[in-house]
Amino acid sequence: MQLSVLIPVLDEQDNILPLLEELYAALAASPAFEVVVIDDGSTDATAVRVQRVLPEYPTLRLIRHASRAGKSAALVTGARAAQGKWLVFIDGDRQNDPADIPAMLDAVLVDEDLVLVNGVRRRRQDTLSKRLASRAANLIRRSVLRDDCPDTGCGLKLIRRDLFLDLPAVDCLHRFIPALVKGRGRASANLPVNDRPRATGMSKYTNLHRAAVGLWDLFGVMWLLRRQKRPMAVTEVKAP
Q1: In the prediction, which pLDDT does 139 show?
Q2: Which of 14, 153, 135, 154 lies closest to 97 in space, CA to CA?
Q3: Could you tell me if 51 and 84 are in contact, meaning their C-beta atoms sit under 8 angstroms apart?
Q4: Which candidate, 6, 61, 150, 190, has a CA 20 to 30 Å from the CA of 175?
Q5: Partners of 7 in the beta sheet?
Q6: Edge-first strand listing for the sheet containing 187-193
Q7: What pLDDT was estimated at residue 11?
Q8: What is the pTM of this model?
Q9: How many CB atoms lie within 10 A of CB 96?
Q10: What is the mean pLDDT of each successive set of 10 residues along the chain, which is 240 residues long?
Q11: What share of the chain is helix, strand, coil (3-state, %, to 5)?
């Protein structure tokens, strides 16, 4: 297994099956892969609908949280269960386009030093207030952490599984993956990807919630980056 696609979902009953159809079509020519849906305590029919189609997709898996734990926790759960060397994160609301995944895979094939590819949304399809709030948050984060990523809010990412599992499993993890990876001296790239309007369902975040939680998390990640001390290289010396 080379690739595990992780889909964290919360109450996305009308989006999840169309997303799975798109995803399997987009990866039809890709190397061996699996898809892991992590249901973060949905109260609608999301999990039931995924369970019903498990026989149709032999490489599809469903993991459930008993109650809501958050997107970062869902990604960690999925990564621990995954079998692939590489992980793709894609949101369950269908705003990320599965057709962008092959280009992300091509990027790491061309440059073997890359351990992370960040999706960067072009022509974001969202409300004006969300676009402005996201732009401000990205500007503040980028100026403070210097993570070289213009859009950490994009849910579409490709990362080495072993590296992701080595990152601190904190609640804000999904927003600060580029900064934490750069703090380890590893190489990443930013790739323009499509962004699509949400067709159905509701966002699980408000601008006020993002701002309040994001600022607190920013200070936490700053502390983590300042406190970590890692050797640049480790070698074992053999007897002459």
Answers
A1: 63
A2: 154
A3: no
A4: 61
A5: 37
A6: 60-65, 33-40, 3-9, 86-89, 157-160, 114-121, 187-193
A7: 96
A8: 0.81
A9: 27
A10: 93 97 94 94 97 96 95 95 97 96 95 95 68 62 71 93 91 84 90 91 58 62 67 74
A11: 40, 20, 40
pLDDT confidence of residue 30: 82
Most distant CA atoms of the chain, gap in Å: 66
- Where is 56: in which H helix or E strand? none
Contact partners, residue 142, CB within 8 Å, separation at least 6 = 148, 149, 150
Type of residue at 136:
A
pLDDT of residue 214: 60
Rounded CA gap, 136 and 123, in Å? 16
Beta pairing class for 157-160 and 86-89? antiparallel
Question: Which DSSP category does 97 fall into?
Answer: -
43 Cβ contact partners less than 8 Å away, ≥ 6 residues apart: 11
Q: Quote the CA–CA distance of 170 and 167 in Å, as a whole number.
A: 9
Name 167's Cβ contacts closer than 8 Å, sequence gap at least 6: 173, 177, 180, 181
| Helix or strand run (H / E) with residue 28 | none
